[in-house]
User: What shape does this take?
Amino acid sequence: MITYVKGKVMSLSQKNTIIQIGGIGYSININENLCSKLKKDSEAELFTYMALRENDVSLYGFETEKDLELFKLLISVKGVGPKSACEMLNSPCDQIKSAIAMQDDALLSKVPGIGKKTSQRIIIELQNKITDYDIDLTRKHQSITPELDDAIQALINLGYQKHQISKQLSALPKELIKAEDIIKYFLSSAK
Assistant: This one.
């Protein structure tokens, strides 16, 4: 399994690059976003995924391990192939994770080959697997305090999903800082 490559960019197109390593050229599928960052005849390092099919072996390249991990999650969903998942990663990882966690299928269904049903399947299957999704993305001006983290954990233990918590807490008044007050606010506004 080839999981990482570092070498000279020999060729570059919108969805593919050839990286030369030790006299061998590896054809790697990439998205347009990554293509814009690579330069021909320069050094590149990519995290890769090797897709094995009955009659095809393909490499998909990503700028970061974070992108690669999200790619693997996306292709675990029935109906999402490597090409579609790679295209989806033209959007930043945090934006995709946020769309999944917030059940916003509009961003996901913009990708060619991903319709409304598939985008909803992605949300259903992955919303609880997005573990590094920062619950306060919608609260950009506040950081997660220990009290807020305690409140979030308590709400999760009560059976609420992260996307539900995030939606409700996006309008959390800044003066609420104690865990019990945050929980009371959530429970009263969740009705």
